[in-house]
Design goal:
- It is built from five helices and no strands.
- By secondary structure, it is mostly helical.
- It has a domain of 104 residues.
- The chain is globular.
């Protein structure tokens, strides 16, 4: 009996450690229990390279050696202030991130290529675009209140 309990404990610890090692970039679709943080999104999406090897977001949305594209700064320590609350310069009345409301957040509309956006789908230059899984992670963060965590 104790042997079975020990085996069960070892298996549960092993599964827990695997779950903790899951990266946001490995997620392929909706995960209703996911609790993404801005710091993880920053590290694994905004600062990460896309499949072509370029920085998917901070290639253009940086203040290093340039003015951030569309005034949207997505670098460490600046992305929250740039995303949550401010209106888009490109589309009147559009707010980048509306906490709790991903469908009305212009960031999601730009990432998904909604027909209502002004300009090109992001990241521009015809992709590679963020994956559906990456976009669902950002959607979930917004849905949970878009906290500065």
């Amino acid at each position: 009996m104790i042997r079975f309990q020990l085996v069960g404990l070892v298996l549960s610890l092993a599964l827990t450690s695997v779950a903790c090692d899951e990266r946001l970039s490995d997620i392929a679709g909706p995960t209703p229990n996911l609790q993404p943080t801005l710091s993880t999104i920053q590290r694994e999406i905004f600062n990460a390279s896309d499949s072509s090897g370029r920085l998917a977001c901070t290639q253009c949305h940086t203040n290093v050696g340039r003015t951030p594209s569309a005034g949207l700064l997505l670098v460490d320590g600046q992305s929250f202030q740039s995303l949550v609350g401010p209106a888009s310069r490109a589309k009147a009345g559009a707010v980048f991130v509306v906490p709790g409301d991903p469908d009305n957040s212009y960031l999601i509309q730009k990432l998904e290529g909604s027909p209502t956006i002004t300009g090109a789908r992001m990241p521009r230059n015809a992709g590679p675009f963020l994956t559906a899984g990456q976009i669902s992670i950002i959607r979930r963060w917004i849905q949970l209140g878009a906290k500065n965590d």
